[in-house]
Amino acid sequence: MPGGVLVGLDGSTAAQRALEYALDAFPGRHVVALYVVDPVEADYDGLLPPMLGYWGEWYDREERRAEEVLAAAVDLGRERDVDVTPVQRRGRAAREIASAAASDGVTPVVVGAHGRTDLAHAVLGDVAAKVARRSSVPVTVVR
């Protein structure tokens, strides 16, 4: 949505702080709350190797979590009289966030500094840093 602010959400405390920052720092601006379901994260969910049927269960659980996180973002926006549009995508988080910013005409992007577990962070790298490198618009990283 042109003129809006894109916030990457993943259910973490850091992402929640990013949302609160965006709502406070950009009053009156539309907020796009983006949750990316990343299938690579399924391997870091404590069930290595994945068991038969695990992928379907993981997707169902992750999509429910995305719906809950996005609904809470919409509710928080309502409390602060800000229009929040929930968006859910599948793919690699950094790539999808940067792509959404470029295609939807939002600026800036706001992300939390740490969202993943320590193991996933070590293996997958820092989503915030990847978003900052890939994004064609300004990125604010909130600690």
Describe this structure in words.
The chain is α/β, with parallel strands linked by helices. The protein has five helices and five strands; from the N terminus they run βαβαβαβααβ. The chain has helices spanning 13-25, 54-79, 93-104, 118-124, 127-134, and strands at 5-9, 31-37, 84-90, 109-112, 139-142. It is globular and about 45 Å long. It starts with a strand and ends with a strand. The model has no long low-confidence stretch (mean pLDDT 84).
Largest sheet: 5 strands, parallel
- Uncertain parts: none
Give the overall shape, derived from the CA principal axes: globular
Question: What number is the mean pLDDT?
Answer: 84
Structural class: alpha/beta
Q: Strand percentage, roughly?
A: 15-25%
Helix and strand element order: EHEHEHEHHE
Oligomeric state of this protein: single chain
Number of strands: 5
Question: How many H/I helices?
Answer: 5
> Helical amount among residues, as a percent range?
40-55%
Distance between the termini: 25 Å
Q: How would you write the strand order of the largest sheet?
A: 3-2-1-4-5
**Rg (CA only):** 15 Å
Short summary:
This protein is an alpha/beta fold. 46% of the residues lie in helices and 19% in strands.
Task: Please supply descriptive tags for the structure shown above.
143 residues, 5 strands, globular, alpha/beta, single chain, 46% helix, five-stranded parallel beta sheet
Per-chain topology:
Elements: E1 5-9, H1 13-25, E2 31-37, H2 54-79, E3 84-90, H3 93-104, E4 109-112, H4 118-124, H5 127-134, E5 139-142
Parallel strand pairs: 1-2, 1-4, 2-3, 4-5
Helix pairs in contact: 3-5
